[in-house]
Amino acid sequence: MNEVRIITGNEAAALAVKLARPGVIAAYPITPQTSLAEKLSEYVERGDLKAEYVRVESEHSSLTVCISASAVGARVFTATSSNGLLYMHEQLHWAAGSRLPVVMCCVNRGVGAPWSIFNDQQDSFSQRDTGWIQIYCRNNQEILDTIIQAYRIAEEVYLPVMVCYDGFILSHTMMPVEIPDTEMVEKFLPPYRPHTILSPDNPKTINPVFFPTRRKNSEGILCDGYMEMRYKLQAAFEKSREVIKTASKEWAELSGRNHGGMIWEYMTEDAELILTGMGSIATEATLAADVLRAEGIRAGVVGIRAYRPFPKEEVVQAFRKATAIAIFEKCISYGYEGGVCSDLKAAFYGTDIKAPIHDYIAGLGGRDVKTGEIVDAARATLETIRAGETDNKTVWLNCHTGG
Amino acid sequence: MHENIFKINEKEYILPGSRACQGCGLALAYRYILKALRENTIVAIPPSCLCVLHGLYPTTSTIVPALNTTFASNAASASGIVAGLNALNKTDMTVLALSGDGGTYDIGLQSLSGAAERNTDFIFACYDNEGYMNTGTQRSGATPMGAITTTTPILTKQEPKKDILKIMEAHNLPYLATVSPSYPADLYDKFVKAKRIRGTRYIHIDTPCPPGWGFPTKNTVKIGKLAVETGLFILFEIENGRFRFTGRSKTMAERGKLVPLVNYVERQERFKKMSIEQLGKFQSSVNSRWNECLKRAEG
Fold first, then answer.
1. In chain A, what are the domains?
2. Cis omega (within 30 of 0) for bond into A377
3. Whole-number CA gyration radius for chain B
4. Strand, coil or helix: what is B62?
5. Would you state the pLDDT for residue B141?
6. Which member of A57, A65, A208 has the closest CB to residue B80?
7. C-beta pairs of B247-255 under 8 Å, 24+ apart in sequence
8. Smallest Cα–Cα separation from A130: which of A92, A81, A91, A79?
């Protein structure tokens, strides 16, 4: 029987990992990931989860342990936040290039300098181009369900998956979460079957030096060069869109919960004003949409669930009727604009979507984003656009930007 | 202790035509390491001369399962292999992480120390060619004082070599040993022994490098022997804290005398700028370390 418990996001994540039955866990402590790593240690020491737990000396090593354990055929898990994720950067590329189905949680936190232990999404956003699938969760139930889905996705397309959720706002906030039973998860997620393993039975040198050109093997067969390997990585991402959607759908059939595949939508059907974002800020935007609707403004919300692969077709479909777009995002590409904003604009290019886009950079370093602030910002966006303003702009929400 | 040399595993795990340089001390050592460890061995490889030796995709000169990883992470990679094998109940394997001196003394030290502190069940072997030889002979923490490298081209390295053996010994390992490819039977025996011990085992390999050190390729074995005969590189093992000389160093300790260091130094281009003063310092550091070991062997 499924049980409902009131738990934090980190505990929801730990329960999901336990249900996914990894053989190897490696983690290094960093706020706000810590209570997840602690909970998993407890499961392992108590014997509730039969896994090798490697208490490494750094994040660089925690991901390395996962990569190498995965290379010998074990299902693996790690988790981190902020500078821990940045310290993994080299290994993030290595995991993706190795085409290993590593699953990790990034408990989103602002990055130094200066230090902040509080939430934003600059950590995972800045690792966007490392070849990992990134899925952002909006509540604790979605964290649990997404981690289970992440293993299905990773093991089907041989790509690593980063499940991202907001530090403190979700990681340390209690919410009711339905815990699926073991049988349901086992049905959805069979044991991992690797396509290649590192073994003396078939000695191989894995990830050796590649040359720019394709080269022949000892039997005279022309094999991939570096570029072909990279193309295959990209091709796996293209394939992953359907896999992400299928995983979401099949999990919904079993559990009754559908968090959306690539995106989720809230009252977008007739919306003239669409608010969008990733993670908990998008949840906050749904409350703002309710307030705006009460004022007679036809507002809706699109939540970007999968950020990589980017849901280009889904967003074009979801935004096609909007006349005004307000993005609320907790990250920025310095020297340009918010990452979600750039990607949406690129997806809209050449389509009929001509609505002006206002990009609100919000909540950096844990600055609270209140529903009222989203309401005011979104209303201002709609009013300026109704008044005939057509320019796109970037606004720092609730930030003292003047003299 | 020596197993009879005729008992050395006849199987070859490195095929002819590796990409190692002519006269490579690593290639010589690696051949005997793999013979000693036999089948059911997995090797963790950082970017280094060893990575090059293994060949360019899709061909390799080795018959051994090997996993390349990043420079800083070789001991962590081995930890992951060990953890993965344990999770899959494959417990009859030997995991060897083989790094150069850069991957041991410098960029790899953190992950090595972490894995050793956890007493991870693996062998970490350092092939010490005293510099970043794969990238073209840059200075490392293992480069000796007075050596020319491409990043100390005019003034030579001013600081002495880091004492990695003391650092590793401070981790209280079940087994720590030094080997030289110039003494393959001693090398072979120590790897055979290490294979039978559980926990973190550390083996240090003196690895003469003809292009990096500047000596003719035919002299690799000779230079390796001189390193031992001058007392610069001492063959020993420490098992559960107990130190003992082995091989040539053992006979030298019993009745021999050290060959003057100048015989080693003058045969290598890298030392051509070494001053008399530097040579004197170098010789006295060798003497004092040798005496330290003599005392330790008695005690």
1. 3-188 (3.40.50.970), 264-396 (3.40.50.920)
2. no
3. 18
4. strand
5. 98
6. A65
7. B247/B183, B247/B185, B247/B186, B248/B183, B248/B186, B252/B228, B253/B293, B253/B294, B253/B297
8. A92
**DSSP secondary structure letter of residue B13:** S
Q: Residue A277 gets which letter from DSSP?
A: E
How many CB atoms are located within 10 Å of the residue B11 CB?
10
Q: Which of A64, A217, A229 to mutate to test the interface with B (most CBs of B within 10 A)?
A: A64
What burial class does residue B298 get, using C-beta atoms within 10 Å of its C-beta: 0-12 exposed, 13-18 middle, 19+ buried? Answer: exposed
User: Model pTM?
Assistant: 0.97
DSSP A155-169: HHHT--EEEEEETTT
User: Chain B contact for A386, CB < 8 A?
Assistant: no
Contact A206 B114 (CB under 8 A): no
Please, what is the end-to-end C-alpha distance for chain B in angstroms? 20
Neighbouring residues of A201: CB distance < 8 A, sequence distance ≥ 6:
none
Is-contact A304 A311, C-beta < 8 A? Answer: yes
In tens, the pLDDT along B40-97 reads 999 999 999 999 999 999 999 999 999 999 999 999 999 999 999 999 999 999 999 9
Name every chain A residue with its beta carbon within 8 A of the beta carbon of B58. 215-217, 223-224
Q: Which of A54, A73, A215 shows the shortest C-beta gap to B88?
A: A73
Q: Which CATH number fits domain B5-298: 3.40.50.40, 3.40.50.970, 3.20.20.150, 3.30.2350.10?
A: 3.40.50.970
CB contact under 8 A, A71 and B66: no
Residues of B in contact with A60 (CB under 8 A): 72-73, 76, 110-111
Burial A348-364 (b: 16+ CB within 10 A, else e): beeeebebbbbbbbbbb
Comparing alpha-carbon positions, the chain B residue that sits nearest to A210 is B57
Q: Find the CB nearest A54 among B44, B60, B79.
A: B79
State phi, psi for B94 to the nearest 5 degrees. -105, 125
- Whole-angstrom Cα distance, residue A78 to residue A147? 12
Cβ contact (<8 Å) for A54 and B42? no
Note the pLDDT of residue B17: 86
Q: Touching check for A203 and chain B: CB below 8 Å? A: yes
- Percent pLDDT > 90 in chain A is 98
Per-domain residue ranges for chain B? 5-298
ipTM of this model?
0.97
Range 209-238 of A in CB contact (< 8 A) with B? 209-211, 215-218, 223-224
Chain A: closest CA distance from residue B78 (Å): 7
Host H or E run for residue A265: strand A263-266
Name the amino acid, one letter, at B210: P
- Chain A residues within an 8 Å CB radius of B83: 23-24, 26, 52, 54, 65, 69, 74
Put simply, the answer to whether A223 touches B57 (Cβ < 8 Å) is: yes
Contact list, B113 vs chain A (CB under 8 Å) = 57
Category of B148 on φ-ψ map: left (φ > 0), alpha (ψ -120 to 50) or beta: beta
Estimate the crossing angle of helix B247-255 against helix B184-196, to 10 degrees. Answer: 110
* One-letter identity of residue A78: T
Contact A202 B90 (CB under 8 A): no
Q: What is the pLDDT of residues A240-250, one digit of tens each?
A: 999 999 999 99
Nearest CA in chain B to A74: B84
Contact B63 A209 (CB under 8 A): no
Interchain proximity A207–B67, CB inside 8 Å? yes
